[in-house]
Amino acid sequence: MAATCELVCAWRRLSLGVPPRRALWGGMRKKVREPEVVETAVPVKDPPILVCPPPRSRKYLPPEDLQSRLESHVREIFGPSLSEDWQKASLKESKLKYRLLAQLAAELGHAVPSSRLHQMCTAGDVLAFYSTQVKDASKFDELCTAELPSNLKIMWEH
Amino acid sequence: MTGRGTASRYLSSVLRNGLGRYVCQLQRLSLVFSPGGQSSRGARGYVEEKVLDFAKQNPGVVVYVTPQKCRSPTVVAEYLNGAVREEIIADKTVAEITQLVQKLANQSGLEIIRIRKPFHTDNPSIQGQWHPFTNKPSALPMQSLRRLEQQPNKV
């Protein structure tokens, strides 16, 4: 009993009494620091701006004179071989199809997505596609901008 | 449990609602759902499509829509008599939620417990409830007449 007490006391003295003579992590080396050299020769380039630009808005509103525009384009591309009803003009030939769709995309700023290209068989399909409106905002934002009745309260802070 | 073990009430309406005008007994509807989260899918769809129509059709009901992160979406209905009913709308379709909300709007705030009698009336008897002395001649008027006959001077 007495022996164990002695041992414990000795251990305590060793660990707590004398402070360590050196720092724990690599303090033994001599502190010889070279004077910092100021470099003025090479100009430092500005860091590139890493802010992500906002994504392109996919909004599309069909213009008023869509039908007439489309008709004029179709007649221009197909030439005199077109029948009376221009909407039935078949787009099977790739060159004609490409020209028509490229022109429309450039003019209206809204391109047919590649997943839907196979669905564009006639000029009527193209007309239907360009007549559909594409909305950008989520339904929540739409709700926010729409006029709410006075008895509907929406808490907007998520 | 038996009928005696659970709560029960008599058939009644809140302040004779419907006798004159009809007042929608639903006071407040609070929709709590998560903007992400798969169990709130129906709730989100309901808020996007149907809640506006419901609010327009029931101008006397205040609808609070709270998108906040929650485990299961709920709809809390508060009634004019103070009753509060909470329903969980997790994993329900838009049609089911529409039906549920319409049901809540049609209810009065009275509790959904066993109704003791399926009928109730404020005027149970028009001509008076029968008792054994109904239609029996009373003895009192005959006694006074006999006394008058015996002693005509005394009035």
- Percent helix of chain B, as a range, is 25-40%
Q: Note the run of SSEs of chain A as H and E.
A: HHHHHE
Which descriptor suits the 3D outline of chain A? flat
Number of strands of chain B: 6
Strand and helix order of chain B: EEHHEEEHEH
Unreliable residue stretches of chain B: none
Helix-strand category of chain B? alpha/beta
- Largest sheet: number of strands, sense, barrel closure of chain B: 4 strands, mixed
Subunit organisation of the chains: heterodimer
Strand % of chain A is under 5%
- Radius of gyration of chain A, CA atoms, in whole angstroms: 38 Å
Distance from N terminus to C terminus of chain B (CA atoms, Å) equals 69 Å
Number of strands of chain A: 1
First-last Cα distance of chain A: 66 Å
Taking strands numbered 1, 2, ... along the chain, how are they ordered across the largest sheet of chain B? Answer: 3-2-4-5
Helix proportion of chain A: 25-40%
User: Which chain pair has the greatest contact?
Assistant: A-B, 13 and 19 residues
Overall pLDDT level of chain B:
91
Could you explain how this protein is built, in words?
Chain B: One of its GO terms (cellular component) is mitochondrial large ribosomal subunit. Chain B: Its main location: mitochondrion. Chain B: InterPro entries: Ribosomal_mL43, Ribosomal_mL43/mS25/NADH_DH, Thioredoxin-like_sf. Chain B: It comes from Chelonoidis abingdonii (Abingdon island giant tortoise). The complex is a heterodimer of chains A (158) and B (155). With 158 residues, chain A is mainly alpha-helical. Chain A contains 5 helices and 1 strand. In chain A, α2 packs antiparallel against α3 (94-108) and α2 (66-78) packs antiparallel against α4. Chain A is flat, with a radius of gyration of 38 Å. By secondary structure, chain B is of the alpha/beta class. Chain B is 26% helix and 19% strand. Chain B is built from 4 helices and 6 strands. Chain B has helices at 41-49, 51-57, 94-106, 140-150, and strands at residues 8-9, 26-33, 62-67, 74-79, 84-88, 114-115. In chain B, strands 3-2-4-5 form a 4-stranded mixed β-sheet, covered by helices on one side. In chain B, strands 1-6 form a two-stranded parallel ribbon. Chain B is elongated, with a radius of gyration of 29 Å. In chain B, 16% of the residues are buried. The chains are: A mainly alpha (158), B alpha/beta (155).
